[in-house]
Amino acid sequence: MNRQQRRAAGASAPGGMSPAFVETFNAAMKAQNEGQFERAIAGYREAAKFNSRHPLLYNNLGVVYYTMGNWDEAVVNYRKAIALDPNMPLALNNLAVTLNSADRHDEAIPIFQHSLKFQPGNPKALNNLGDSFNKTGRFAEAKPLIEQALAAVPDYAEGYSNYGMTLWGLGDLDAAIAAFKRAIALQPDLAMPHKNLGLVYLLIGNYAEGWRDYLWRQAADHIPARPNARPLWQGQDLGDGALLVFAEQGVGDEILYANMMQDLVERGVNVVWEADQRLLPLFRRSYPTIRFIERTWPVDPAVTPADIVAQCPIGTLGTVLRTDVARFATARFPVLQPDLARVAALRAQTGVADNEKLIGMSWLSKNPRFGNNKSTALTDWADAIRVPGVKFVNLQYGDTLDERQRLTRDTGLALIHLDGLDLTADLDGVAALAAACDHVITVSNTAAHIAGAVGTPLQILVPEGMGKLWYWGNGTETTPWYPQARFFRQDAQSHWQPIMRQVVELVQKISRNR
User: Fold this and answer.
1) pTM
2) Per-residue confidence (pLDDT) for residue 34, from 0 to 100
3) Could you give the domains of the chain?
């Protein structure tokens, strides 16, 4: 231990520190510094037998667990340290950083603020608090904090990275790009500003530069490398060999990137495409010449065909196939083909009359990071649902019984819900139901991708700030990924009332066109 650590330990440990404690504690720190984390944990546990009221011991245990990715145990140990020393800035900041990493930002913010009372002006603490404000969409509150950190440390690469996120959230994309570039100039191997610079470029339609920096997402998001790696496909001829295209993101992204399947077919590429098992029936029907396999993790080598000679993550296909908007002319629309027999059967099951229009709807996102920013309440849709001449059918995945019952209890309205269709597990059925609709109106979630891919007229409610995904564009009326889609865009963070009035107007227009 250094002098400061010894002083802290002596102040918090009754009777000072025994030689046995010092010896075991130092051995645990040595193991920690050498990356021998299990040995470090055992050492700190042994040291606690000699002094169980040493806050630095639990702080260090928290650091070990955090480094190992076990954030729950890290939180437990940081809280033990703080219980022993409520004014320990190191443990306070470490706890808040861990909660921030676990997307528990509402818990992290007050702890960061408390920590700053003991270290006012600390650049890292200011930047960390700004980061939590960014991740909760509170960009205006983040801005002065990160600016203060950058004023103190002008070459603070991570500060510029977070500042770019702040400026992006505030809608100043040119300044955000400049901030990300500054972070990269200061620390070229810092993955997050590369990734976010790529996303901003993609958002504004600069695909050539966007895909290049978006390649850093694997390092930024700690996406594990695949075993038995093959060379990355960059458009080269594979001869008789096959290309493995593998899924790395959510179901919505898998559907989005299906836009490029036809390009590979027309190039004559022998494709093995890995996908979520729920998408396999839909994908196989739509592209019978592509071999589709189920995505598993860890990867099962037994189900990976032996003729694969190159591979490509789905999010990297664009570097070859979508280098500018003009390249979308080669896409096939609709992208996916639903089961036409199920389309007819499901429309009949809704009971919609011949003189009525059927509108599919989905009102929330369960994205763990910013789903709340993309979500509405079902009762917000009441005025649209009561428009005569239309019927609304549920496309919302997950258990929505309570919300549907609340809608009926509070408004007297009912949303059509097909009990025999699992809207989470049966995505082929969801695609058929979306295709059975005359129109789909939804927030930004999987239902939007499904309706877009099967070609149903589509209106998407797009949030401002956090949750505005790059493929919906920046202020554009539509997107090349789903040409029939149109957008209702928020003009203020988490403010849906003007949008819902536009939804009502759209539904009235659909009703008049019966």
Assistant:
1) 0.87
2) 94
3) 3-220 (1.25.40.10), 242-330 (3.40.50), 340-512 (3.40.50.2000)
